[in-house]
Amino acid sequence: MLDKDLATLYQVETKALVQAVQRNRNRFPPDFMFQLSVQEFTALRSQIVTSKGRGGRRSAPYAFTEHGVAMLSSVLRSERAVEINIEVIRAFVKLRQLVASNAELAIRLSHLEQRYDSQFKVVFDAIRQLMSDATQVPPKRRIGF
């Protein structure tokens, strides 16, 4: 996502977002964020038809990956950023609990499999397949452009 769109999402000015990123450069490695090239910026500017005189953007925008978007929520100081940061942490905790419960289930299934003979192997294989399908996350809808 572009910095302008994220500034709207986090309810801050684009200038404040960029300043926060520049002050915390070590938190944004290349796989979290990058700045558009001159060619990309020119193509983007021609698509959105900004003014050539006063106003409009003069520097290339930053583009953020999903990791960069999450990191922004911990760097910005708006109420919205705090709310998003809390939700990100809750999501990670929930994911950890899901992984732990799946690990426990796999151990219990292994013990059951050892206890019964091979006639139930097909059933255990089917259950394992269902467990692996359940852990796959469906693709997210894209937000923005």
Structural descriptors:
4% strand, 2 strands, two-stranded antiparallel ribbon, mainly alpha
Question: What does this molecule look like?
Answer:
The longest helix has about 35 residues, at about 80-115. This protein is mainly α and about 140 residues long. About 65% of the residues lie in helices and about 5% in strands. The model has no long low-confidence stretch (mean pLDDT about 80). It has a two-stranded antiparallel ribbon. It is built from six helices and two strands.
What topology emerges from the helices and strands here?
Layout: H1 3-10, H2 14-23, E1 33-35, H3 38-48, E2 62-64, H4 66-75, H5 79-115, H6 121-135
Antiparallel strand pairs: 1-2
Helix pairs in contact: 1-2, 4-5, 5-6
Shape: elongated
What does the average pLDDT come to? 80
Radius of gyration (CA) equals 23 Å
Given as residue ranges, the uncertain stretches (5+ residues, pLDDT < 50) are none
With strands numbered from the N-terminus, the spatial order across the biggest sheet is 1-2
> Beta-strand percentage?
under 5%
The first-to-last residue Cα distance is 7 Å
Helix coverage percent of residues?
A: 55-70%
**Backbone structural class:** mainly alpha
What sequence of helices (H) and strands (E) makes up the elements?
HHEHEHHH
Q: What's the count of strands? A: 2
Largest sheet: 2 strands, antiparallel
